[in-house]
């Protein structure tokens, strides 16, 4: 996924001029742009105490800037209104970017307290700008005359975007409605912060502890050592703790031979957020949905989904439903076929052991799927891993593909400060040898990091300020015990290519105006998914997949097996994803007053899965509602975006293959027609310009081995 902050409103302004009194801390590194290369953050000089004064001052500064624009006696012009707005709020943007990035990657109680303390203030800040009537009046003048007022097509698009953003925030509401809108936004901001905090606390609290290493049979010695280490850190010396990730399925469900422990692990995972403890998120979620319904109704939309989707390439809930419902039956049919094969394997294994068989359960799926893949295709994950060493994958795989395609180059640097010593930094150079960006690779899981994988930026490409990107990728790769190599799963390799696709999109942006860097959410996953194609591209794979001890290349036959196994388990993967996407849609397609209560959240999910014909016990949703962080942040009514983008992705991969694959000409086309364009043009126009036709779903269906029945 991309960074939530990428979609956060670019524009925040100040509410309170108070708070300035305590802000005179001359050594606060946040108050000035960093003197480091490309304004790379001074992580070494930054103290958590520096944030509050910088936030207060940043809010006050921007409030003054926005008020000056609104009060300008001169008639509104593009420069005195739009460009001035684009340039406002530098300190606040710098500070919130840093704070929210660190909350995602390295949260601590001080930072979490800041998040809680400032959530409502920052929401109010945004409202103070977007609901400013004098500012809106100026935007309306420019909007009415936009063909003449804008200096170029991008400028016209920017006027339209600002107006749309204000209207969608409620600029056309009456005063009473605006007051209610502000109250809703403040409450939503606070609830979102507390949901995210609870999810992180709950995932740590739900670690599964076992007494003896025997129970961990199936894990490697390094994984067992890491579990022992984990337990020690929790004050449970001599025991073993399996840390959880935020997804429903836990990686160790693939490896653990002990069925009872797999079940325990799985049940601990899916119980999260609904255990009635301090980290229970159900009441928060219920309230969030109710507030979103009320906000949508205030703005004249039937449901929260209608409000969200209008601004996406999908445009309507009907379009999204049609797409999801077209795929769901085919995916379930595939998953049921896969389940039947797994059941056969279980039956025959149990018979061979002289033990009674059992029905396949959710906690058996990964374990037997791995065995089945091994039987069918002659390999399993553990054979691949020695060839997938983390730095080799990154530098000789991900970077190598980008170099071949775009001509950009990378150089590791070790002189820049980092917030954790397992974070790496690289200079990125453009084709002309000049610096393009700094790339931060933060690959390891840690208890202070939220789940999943995402891209963030610390500094953006901004011609108005002359800044260049500082961009980061964050993954959650379990850290091996000290001295052990980090060997990746195939899934992690793909994730690394995926997230770097977001980074490329961000680094290549060439727009004149920073606000136009944003693209619709259901489009943003498209370039990142396209970048995954290079993970098993033969020349790329041959370059990075080398045995970590011997340096021997991954054997040809293993490569071929990987390629042949590509569609393996796709029914499972698709159902697990689609069920979460459908639940997200249905939850946000309820009209005002229909939000499920806290007690009904879990039941609502079950009811929806049943109604949509996607309730297949052995394949639970990738995220269950109480820990579905995506829908709390930027992906509410937006989790469908991945498969929506994948239609464009699969179609584009066909185009790439037809045009010779990994070569500079294709990279130049991708960069010039898509990656450098940000949101400066309609997203679907960019797609058409690149591949020469509108989106076609067939390549996606073929890729996933799905057959869609004719209605
Ligand atoms: Zn993504």
The set of bound ligands, ions and cofactors reads:
zinc ion
Sheet/helix structural class: mainly alpha
Low-confidence segments, given as residue ranges, are 2-23
Summed over residues and divided by their number, the pLDDT gives a mean of 92
How many DSSP H or I helices?
Answer: 27
Query: Which outline best applies?
Result: globular
Count of DSSP strands: 7
In helices, the fraction of residues equals: 40-55%
Specify Rg, calculated over alpha carbons.
25 Å
Rounded to the nearest angstrom, the distance between the terminal CA atoms is 33 Å
Strand order of the largest sheet: 3-4-5-7-6
The profile of the biggest β sheet is: 5 strands, mixed
Strand content: 5-15%
Describe the protein's topology.
Blueprint: H1 4-7, H2 51-71, H3 78-87, H4 90-105, H5 109-130, H6 133-144, H7 146-149, H8 153-169, H9 175-205, E1 208-210, H10 221-233, E2 240-242, H11 259-271, H12 282-298, H13 304-309, H14 317-353, H15 362-377, H16 381-384, H17 390-406, E3 409-413, E4 424-429, E5 435-444, E6 454-459, E7 470-477, H18 490-508, H19 521-531, H20 538-544, H21 556-564, H22 570-588, H23 601-611, H24 641-658, H25 664-675, H26 683-691, H27 698-704
Parallel strand pairs: 5-7
Antiparallel strand pairs: 1-2, 3-4, 4-5, 6-7
Helix pairs in contact: 2-3, 2-4, 2-5, 2-6, 5-9, 6-8, 9-12, 14-15, 14-22, 17-18, 17-20, 17-25, 18-19, 19-24, 22-23, 24-27, 25-26
The protein binds zinc ion.
């Amino acid at each position: 996924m991309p960074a939530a902050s990428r979609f956060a409103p670019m524009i925040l302004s100040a509410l309170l001029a108070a708070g300035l009194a305590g802000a005179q801390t001359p050594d606060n590194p946040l108050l000035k742009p960093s003197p480091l290369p490309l304004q790379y953050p001074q992580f070494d000089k930054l103290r958590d105490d520096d944030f509050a004064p910088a936030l207060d001052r940043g809010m006050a500064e921007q409030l003054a800037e926005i008020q000056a624009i609104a009060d300008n006696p001169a008639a509104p012009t593009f420069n005195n209104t739009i460009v001035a707005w684009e340039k406002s709020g530098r300190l606040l943007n710098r500070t919130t970017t840093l704070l929210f990035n660190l909350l995602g990657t390295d949260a601590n109680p001080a930072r979490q307290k800041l998040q809680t303390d400032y959530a409502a203030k920052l929401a109010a800040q945004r409202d103070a700008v977007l609901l400013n009537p004098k500012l809106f009046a100026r935007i309306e003048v420019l909007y009415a005359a936009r063909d003449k007022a804008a200096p170029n097509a991008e400028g016209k698009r920017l006027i339209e975007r600002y107006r749309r953003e204000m209207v969608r925030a409620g600029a056309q509401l009456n005063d009473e409605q605006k007051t209610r809108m502000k109250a809703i936004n403040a409450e939503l901001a606070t609830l979102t912060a507390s949901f995210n905090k609870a999810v992180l606390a709950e995932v740590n609290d739900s670690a599964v502890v076992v007494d003896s290493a025997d129970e961990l049979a199936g894990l490697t010695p390094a994984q067992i050592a890491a579990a022992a280490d984990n337990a020690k850190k929790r004050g449970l010396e001599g025991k073993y703790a399996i840390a959880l990730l935020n997804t429903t399925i836990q990686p160790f469900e693939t490896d653990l031979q002990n069925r009872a422990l797999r079940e325990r692990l799985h049940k601990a995972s899916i119980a999260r957020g609904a255990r009635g403890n301090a980290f229970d998120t159900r009441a928060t979620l219920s309230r969030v949905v109710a507030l979103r319904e009320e906000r949508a109704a205030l703005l004249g939309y039937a449901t929260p989904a209608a409000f969200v989707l209008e601004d996406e390439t999908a445009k309507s809930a009907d379009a999204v439903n049609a797409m999801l419902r077209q795929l769901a039956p085919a995916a379930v049919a595939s998953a049921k076929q896969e389940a039947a094969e797994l059941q056969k394997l279980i039956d025959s294994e149990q018979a061979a052991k002289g033990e009674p068989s059992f029905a396949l359960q959710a906690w058996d799926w990964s374990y037997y799927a791995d065995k089945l893949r091994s039987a069918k295709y002659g390999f399993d994950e553990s054979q691949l891993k020695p060839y997938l060493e983390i730095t080799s994958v990154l530098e000789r795989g991900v970077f190598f593909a980008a170099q071949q395609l775009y001509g950009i180059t990378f150089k590791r640097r070790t002189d820049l400060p980092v917030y954790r010593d397992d974070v790496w930094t690289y200079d990125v150079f453009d084709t002309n040898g000049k610096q393009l960006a700094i790339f931060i690779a933060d690959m390891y899981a840690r208890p202070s990091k939220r789940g999943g994988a995402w891209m963030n930026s610390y500094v953006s490409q901004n011609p108005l300020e002359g800044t260049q990107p500082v961009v980061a990728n964050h993954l959650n790769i379990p850290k091996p015990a000290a001295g052990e190599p980090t060997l990746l799963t195939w899934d992690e390799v793909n994730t690394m290519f995926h997230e770097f696709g977001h980074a490329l999109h961000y680094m290549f942006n060439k727009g004149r105006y920073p606000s136009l860097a944003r693209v619709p959410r259901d489009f943003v996953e498209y370039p990142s998914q396209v970048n995954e194609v290079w993970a098993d591209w033969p020349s790329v794979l041959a370059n990075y997949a080398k045995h970590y001890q011997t340096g021997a290349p991954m054997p040809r036959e293993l490569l071929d097996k990987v390629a042949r196994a590509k569609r393996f388990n796709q029914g499972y993967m698709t159902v697990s994803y689609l069920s979460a996407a459908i639940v997200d849609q249905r939850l946000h397609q309820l009209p005002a007053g229909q939000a499920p209560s806290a007690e009904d959240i879990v039941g609502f999910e079950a009811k929806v899965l049943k109604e949509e014909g996607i309730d297949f016990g052995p394949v639970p949703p990738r995220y269950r509602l109480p820990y579905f962080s995506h829908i709390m942040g930027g992906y509410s009514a937006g989790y469908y975006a991945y498969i929506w983008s994948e239609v464009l992705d699969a179609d584009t991969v066909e185009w790439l293959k037809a045009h010779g694959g990994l070569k500079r000409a294709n990279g130049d086309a991708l960069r010039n027609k898509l990656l450098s364009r940000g949101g400066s043009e309609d997203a679907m126009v960019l797609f058409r310009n690149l591949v020469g036709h509108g989106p076609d779903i067939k390549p996606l269906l073929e890729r996933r081995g799905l057959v869609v029945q004719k209605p």
